[in-house]
Give the backbone structure.
Amino acid sequence: MEYTISQSEFKNFHELIYRETGITLRESKRQLLQSRLRKRLVDLDLDSYQAYYDYLLESDPHGDELIRMINCVTTNKTSFFREYHHFEFLRDVVFKQKIEQAKNGGPRKLRIWSAACSMGEEPYSIAMNVHNAFADQSGWDIRILASDIDTEVLAHAQRGFYETSRLAGIPKEHLQRHFTKKPDGMEVRPHLKDLLTFRRINFADENWPIKTQFDVIMCRNAMIYFDHETQDKLLRRFSEYLPNDSHLILGHSESLVRAKDLYKPLGKTIFVRTGVQSSSPPQQAPPTLAKPVSKPTASAASKKTSASKAPAVHTKLRATPAPAKQKETVKVPKKPIIVGEVFASREPTCVTTLLGSCIAACLYDEDAQIGGMNHFLLPNGSGDRDAASYGIHAMELLINEIMGLGGDRRRLQAKVFGGGHVIENMKKGNSVGDKNSEFVKHFLEVESIPIVSEYLGGDSGLQVQFFTDSGRARVKKIEKRKLPREEVKPSTPKLEPAAAADDGITLF
Ligand SMILES: C[S@@+](CC[C@H](N)C(=O)[O-])C[C@H]1O[C@@H](n2cnc3c(N)ncnc32)[C@H](O)[C@@H]1O
């Protein structure tokens, strides 16, 4: 069927898109909009653009179709190390300065926001540079926020798989160190993914779900789609998240427009934040969203990827500052759990468990500061075991438990551990551990619960500690012989508790 968008229909969409996203579509984009929205009309079996417009206004109470419509209109062109000089600036100026300042007692903390990150090439390029600069440093707390309005590209970014043709801009040594070969492409390895937090953030939303201040905000090649007024507003809002001397990096054809009182240009579309009164009280964190952020739609997130068989590589980058660590180890009560158990709490608790081929999934709602852990043996099954011995039930039980305590499913983030190759005579790639890992990754992907840390696979057992109030996790490798029998021989019902020393811990 032929669909044509009339001038008045285009005007309606133009206004709706501007209101919802800030994106301005000139009349010359009419054909483009027509072709991009065509699929939505087909999928919904609608016979005109007016019918689709009415559907969006009248039959889309939760805004799911609005998100799909927005996904259709965004332009997502990006590449690894695009505008290379910006990455040189991070490496040669920002990171060096931070390390120098830390030597003089400055905070060992780095926060970067890749705003409008598209399919993830930009934040992963940042992460590669971060890794190279900080790998030999200890005790740093580093996070990169990767956000976009488009849930499809965000799901792609979160997956971290790139076809060979998209990998061209990556230096060979980065490829070897940070990617794993897959059929038709490569996947970003967990030690880089672990540095990133993914969020759907629409610049046009009144509140952003961000509680932190950044050392750098990179917002490149997104403002070109906005008019001057929207650009100016956005630059002013960014300034609320940037303390004095932090940096803003824009795309090659973007400029400050009117916000020149807030930033000083350093050249090559790099700006330094100026004019924040150092004597003024510390900046209040801007308000968080009253309603939880929208997550990637199920359709976007459910495109299955195979579970990574490679174990996560330990990195020092996630180490947290000493005072918080002391607080956790000294004061927080411990709650050990074994296979088939689920525990969640809004009180500070350190949930611990020992894993071999089993999985511990830790879920955390940062806004409500509620978290919990489960420990399951196999993806699916039945028999005389507790239902929570099986992943499918254990995941739902944990989610329900957290929701019962006041958490929100849509805000949950996951850390997943275990799935080790500890069972004799099982081939890697097809072991119980692999099946468990694959299951938990797929479950979380379908549920649109982002995995922010993982340690899956490997040949050893793990001791895991998870702090329910902060969402932090610690993992320590342990010898196979110290594991409960259940972990190395899943058909054996009896459990033997085992203790492990707490040295050599890696923080996640
Ligand atoms: C051309 S890409 C730029 C990607 C990357 N920053 C780069 O320079 O390579 C522009 C991105 O801006 C995002 N975008 C457009 N409007 C947005 C909005 N209102 N809020 C957040 N992101 C938006 C789009 O979804 C798209 O992925």
Summary: The chain has three domains: 7-73, 84-273, 327-507.
